[in-house]
Every structure is written in structure tokens, then in C-alpha cells.
Amino acid sequence: MADNMENLRAKRLAIPFNVGKSVKTAWEVSLETAIEMYTIWRETGIFKMLEKLDPNLYNVIMDIVEENEKRYQELYGEEE
Question: In which domain, by residue range, is 38 found?
Fold first, then answer.
């Protein structure tokens, strides 16, 4: 599993940076709203279910979640 994770990370790094910039989401949500949704998904077991159904998609989503949580902590960590 660890070997697959390294391969997946290497493949993600191989994607040109501009590709990620050309894709727009259907809507934008605030960082606070995203953090609240991650909490709900954790508490309801959505992440665990996703991990069992599609480990690769789970890894991609968790990378995004971790980046957003880190950003949130940097922005609002001192206030709490």
C-alpha cells in the first residue's frame, strides 16, 4: 500500500501545474464551510466508507482535506 501511495504522489506531481488551474469548480464555498463539511463527513463515517469503496479517490480527497485544514489552522488557529 505504501508503494502505491508513493506511485500515486509521483503521478500527481507529473501533472503540469497549469492543468490544475484550467479546471473550474461548479461553485466555490468558504474555507469555514469546507471545514464544517469535513467534520460532518468524519462524524458520519463518509470518509471511512469512501476509503473502502475507492482508496485512490479517498487519498486524493484526503490530500485536499489536509491542505484545507492546514490552511484553516494557519488562518484561524490563534483565535480558538
Answer: 32-80
Q: How many domains does the chain have?
A: 1
3-state SS of the chain is CHHHHHHHHHHHHHCCHHHHHHCCCCCCCCHHHHHHHHHHHHHHCHHHHHHHHCHHHHHHHHHHHHHHHHHHHHHHCCCC
Of the candidates 78, 41, 36, the one whose C-alpha atom is nearest the C-alpha of residue 62 is: 41
Q: Nearest CA to 11 among 49, 59, 47?
A: 59
Kindly report the backbone phi and psi dihedral angles of residue 2, in degrees, each rounded to the nearest multiple of 5, phi listed first. -60, -40
What are the tens digits of pLDDT across the range 25-80?
667 889 999 999 999 999 999 999 999 999 999 999 999 999 999 999 999 886 55
